[in-house]
Amino acid sequence: MSIYSELGIAPVINAAGTYTVWGGSSMSDQTLSDMREASREFVSIRDLQRAVHEKLAQLTHNEGAYVSNGAATGLYLSVAACVQRKLKKPFYYVTKEEVNQCNVACFRSHRNPYDMVIKHLGLVYQEIGFPNIILPATEQDIERAIDENTVAFYFANSTWTAPGDASLETVVRICQKHDIPVIVDAAAQLPPKENLWAFSRRGASLTLFSGGKDLCGPQSSGLIVGCRELTEIITSIGFPNYGIGRMMKVGREELIGLYSAVKQYMESDEDQRRADCERQVALVLDKLASYPGLTAQYSFPNEAGQPIPRVCITMGEDRKGVTDLYEKLLNGSPRILTGLEDNRLYINPMTLKPGEMEIVLKRLTEILEEK
């Protein structure tokens, strides 16, 4: 009996993507083996952090790196580091009142549920512009938003941000003039692997990635890359130091797990992976082409803007038909998770194991032929 069976939990075949609430991604046998090996020996966490962070910086072509327990924690610690840099004293000694006076500039169109950690830390959002194209943010808007209490600029790089912002290059140019660090939230912006260093080269001070999405590391891990000055401050604030970072524990297993995953990621063949995903999508499109009342189309990029194709299924105006199909796939045997967005069902090969697309297609056609 599997551990999930013992707990009465039925796993799913994930044909939706790297959604955190469904487990993110799957770790490789090599990563699991390395984590198991790490768990059997005792080491100095500080020494291990220093070694892993240095190796990750080298692998990702950055000055510095830090392993956090998730990308949201990465943002929390990054902002805290910017506060310490601004106030020129260790964050441990910064008072609540001093934090409350600090602000983080950001586009109103970039606000999202993940950036709530900025408020939780105690800072104020200095919002710029509007979340639409009626009056896009200008350079003057950015200049006027930055004041003597601004510690950082938060830039969310994602396909779900609303229009109304300015480019990262514009933000960087203005912020560098005012000595304001730019934090880029790119949690789901892998692949391509070059994004691990591309934002730094475009001028970002720190870039945040999820460790448990396409990197296929521990789901409870995150990766911060960027300038050494700030990653060293983050290291001085984060676990195992006392203060706000103590509760953000990253064990030796997660440190080794993410290091192992990034090594494998850098060695992976992106072209081959893309070709395999294209083959799987073509297989589904070909099979579903003859079903009346159903339209299957090629969709690119995927829900997070990653360069991975998907299959998009619609049933005309029959909203109930798409929802029923989603629920039958999810609640059948085997359980199959797909994407459901705006009366469209999506099949994403990104998180499927070898042979699973054929299982998804078999179950899908069974449901369609029930009538």
From TrEMBL:
Annotated keywords: Pyridoxal phosphate
GO MF assignments: L-seryl-tRNA(Sec) selenium transferase activity
Sequence positions bearing N6-(pyridoxal phosphate)lysine: 213
Essential cofactor(s): pyridoxal 5'-phosphate
PANTHER family, per the entry: L-SERYL-TRNA(SEC) SELENIUM TRANSFERASE (PTHR32328:SF0)
UniProt family annotation: Belongs to the SelA family.
Protein name: Aminotransferase class V-fold PLP-dependent enzyme
Naturally occurring in which organism (per UniProt): Faecalibacterium prausnitzii
